[in-house]
Amino acid sequence: MRLRSTILLTVALALAGCATPSQIPPVEVAPEAPYTLDAGDKLRVTVFGQDGLTNTYAVNASGKIAMPLIGSVEARGRTTESLARAIAAKLRQGYVREPHVAVEVETYRPFFVLGEVTAAGQYAYVNGMTVETAVAIAGGFSPRAYKTYAEVSRVVDGQLVRTSVPLTYPVRPGDTINVIERWL
Q1: Would you say domain 7-32+109-179 falls under CATH 3.90.1150.10?
Q2: Which of 106, 123, 25 is nearest to 59 (CA)?
Q3: How far is the C-alpha of 168 from the C-alpha of 128, rounded, in Å?
Q4: What's the CATH number for 42-107?
Q5: Where is the Soluble ligand binding domain (predicted)?
Q6: pTM here?
Q7: Is 75 within 8 Å of 87 (Cβ atoms)?
């Protein structure tokens, strides 16, 4: 069972001029969608009873993994369960009679922190991260940082979405967090 939660976002802070976060009403956003795979993820694919197929595979820049016998399988945009079904379907086409496949993420793609932090850059993702923990990994806020919210860029349904979020907002692999400079 997937844990679903409602997340409150603050929006339009950058456009609000001198408004403070407390003056801008939060906007309710739908629960988080399940994690989808993309380039940079490393997957552990287990084909039960087939040790030659069980291995770690990287999702390449074109969003695919290359497996023995069946060749390339599209991983981008799929959940691990959906990818396991696709691999099993390809294996069923003359290679393995009744394939049982499990896929799990071994290493998530990195996230990025930019702006007013001590050490901007690319960092390894850890489950359960928030914007605040991501900033801590990047060495903390610089003296000029706005310490109430940050901007997060994320690809959603193939579209890049950028929004201002509180520091408690969950980070996902591939996100870009931009800590903005305060004016006063």
Answers
A1: no
A2: 106
A3: 11
A4: 3.30.1950.10
A5: 111-158
A6: 0.73
A7: no
